[in-house]
Amino acid sequence: MRVQHFIKTLAVCGMLGALPIAGAQAQESKEPIIIALHDWTGQHITSHIAGELLKQKGYKVEYVTIDYLTGLTAMENGDVTFMSELWATTAGDAMKASDATGKTENLGPLGPAAKEEWWYPLYMKEKCPGLPDWHALLKCGEAFSAPETAPKGRYLGMEATWGGHDPERIEALGLPFVAVDAGTESAMFAELKSAYERKAPIMLWVYSPHWVPSVFQGEWVQFPEYEPACYTDPKWGVNPDKAYDCGKPHGEIFKYTSADTKKKWPAAYEVLKKFKVDGGELNLMVKDVDVDGKNLDEVVATYVEKHKGEY
User: Fold this and answer.
1) Which of 20, 50, 179, 265 has the fewest Cβ atoms surrounding its Cβ within 10 A?
2) Does residue 25 form part of some domain?
């Protein structure tokens, strides 16, 4: 009996030894989790926060710089694992198209609400009475002009990178403006800083969460409120012949991951799904880096240390 009991004990131990241990790191892929980086500071911060949280769980993390509007395609192709910020305001169509492929997963809102619109310093109201109502711009093109656009106003944006349909908006609303692409975010806000110090004319694309609204005094232009039909139905809105006769959409900022993340890195998946950042706190971190010159890695490390217990 003792021999039989010993044999049974060995058999049971052998079976237990063969069973997988739930949640063990060994069960997950050893491949690196690839996080996309885009061309604005806030997204670098949220991406590196996510990366540091994963590193603390034992994961290998790599970063790849990729164009914002093609990031989802890269994710569908397996070249990117996670994107921390996809703004419904500028990537809504791309997200819908990616959802339809079944190769990506929307992990829900990051936390901050997205707002982006034409913005001007408060001192420009003296040169363009009636602002922030967009109708004032119909008579104020020259007040916002630059040598390359005069007598029309100059609107500084980043159409090639972030979209926004500003040339179409200008045409649909009959605005005496020319849309100019700044090329990079750093160039755009460096120009704002220079203009602001000289009280020079400037109209540009400003978004939130960002440090600009908390550092400079200014306002967003109040265009006709966005509705989906504005972008698709020319009959909608003040111009019955053209679409885009409204302001930009407002909405959430979403996190995305590849569809196989849940199976490939289940514990990482749970961290990324739970990951959120407060909008006000993110604004201050962006200001720390872009205005106060703090090291991004140090800002991220401070945040992670403060919030690590949440994950």
Assistant:
1) 20
2) no
User: What's the structural domain count of the chain?
Assistant: 2
The total of other beta-carbon atoms located within 10 Å of residue 231's CB is 17
pLDDT band at 88 (very low <50, low <70, confident <90, very high): confident
For the entire predicted model, the pTM comes to 0.74
Alpha helices (H) in the chain, listed in sequence order? 2-18, 41-56, 71-76, 88-101, 159-162, 166-173, 185-198, 212-215, 228-232, 261-264, 266-274, 279-290, 296-307
Provide the token pair at 269. 């998946």
Q: Are residues 124 and 76 in the same domain?
A: no
pLDDT score of 231: 94
Closest of 207, 213, 225, 38 to residue 134, by C-alpha: 225
Q: How far apart are CA 25 and CA 30, in angstroms?
A: 9
In a domain, residue 59? The reply is: yes
Cβ atoms within 10 Å of 186's Cβ, excluding its own:
13
Residue 289's domain comprises 30-112+252-310
**pLDDT, mean of residues 280-296:** 93
Cβ atoms of 72 and 102 closer than 8 Å: no
Each residue's pLDDT tens digit, 201-217: 999 999 888 889 888 99
Cα 290 versus chain centre, distance: 16
Residue 164: which of 120, 103, 226, 211 has the closest Cα?
Answer: 226
Give the C-alpha separation, 75 to 260, whole Å.
Answer: 11
